[in-house]
């Protein structure tokens, strides 16, 4: 398992649904996953639809965990032995466009589109060989150590 993913995701094999987190940037990232035919989330040489949702959820979780790791320690968590917890709480507008074959990499793109207190809204897309496989919207909860801290400042002259 990738050491970065081991540090930021609570999942362990066989439930790890991303192999690498690539190009994380402010609010968006791309992850990769290649399913073996005997992987959890694979059946009859194809990736299951449920695995697509979990791939997107873990990519979004890894992106958010990366963001939290970059916050000052007093905001992030003064007790490193306690991890920030989170969970997927909903999905919407999911579309499954075509099957994805095992043994070929999936490109998982996610973007955090909204933060409201401990809740996050993310969009995701999965492609294989350049073709769209699945897309949808994820809703999840992230428990932060100090949830009273504003994540962004309002524009000057406006109140939150």
Features:
Thiol Ester Dehydrase, Chain A, two-stranded antiparallel ribbon, globular, six-stranded antiparallel sheet, 160 residues, 3 helices, disordered C terminus
Task: Indicate the CATH class.
Answer: Alpha Beta
Question: Can you tell me the residue ranges where pLDDT is under 50 for at least 5 consecutive residues?
Answer: 146-160
CATH superfamily caption: Hotdog Thioesterase
N-to-C terminal Cα separation, in Å? Answer: 42 Å
Count of structural domains:
1
CATH architecture: Roll
Helix content estimate? 10-25%
Count helical runs.
Answer: 3
Largest sheet: 6 strands, antiparallel
The whole-angstrom Rg is: 16 Å
Structure in words:
This protein has helices spanning 3-8, 49-69, 73-76; strands at 20-25, 28-33, 42-43, 46-47, 86-96, 106-116, 119-128, 131-142. The protein has 160 residues and is α+β, with helices and mostly antiparallel strands.
Brief write-up:
This protein is of the alpha+beta class and 160 residues long. The chain has helices at residues 3-8, 49-69, 73-76; strands at residues 20-25, 28-33, 42-43, 46-47, 86-96, 106-116, 119-128, 131-142. It is built from three helices and eight strands; from the N terminus they run αββββααββββ.
């Amino acid at each position: 398992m990738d050491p970065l993913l081991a540090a930021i995701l609570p999942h362990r094999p066989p439930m790890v649904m991303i192999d690498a987190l690539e190009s994380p940037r402010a609010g968006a990232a791309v992850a990769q996953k290649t399913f073996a035919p005997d992987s959890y989330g694979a059946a009859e040489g194809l990736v299951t639809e449920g695995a697509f949702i979990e791939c997107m959820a873990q990519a979004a979780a890894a992106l958010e965990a990366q963001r939290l790791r970059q916050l000052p320690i007093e905001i992030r968590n003064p007790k490193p032995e306690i991890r920030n917890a989170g969970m997927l709480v909903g999905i919407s507008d999911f579309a499954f466009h075509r099957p994805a074959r095992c043994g070929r990499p999936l490109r998982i793109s996610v973007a955090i589109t909204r933060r409201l207190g401990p809740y996050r809204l993310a969009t995701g897309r999965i492609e294989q060989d350049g073709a769209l496989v699945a897309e949808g919207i994820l809703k999840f909860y992230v428990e932060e150590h100090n949830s009273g801290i504003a994540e962004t400042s309002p524009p000057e002259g406006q109140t939150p």
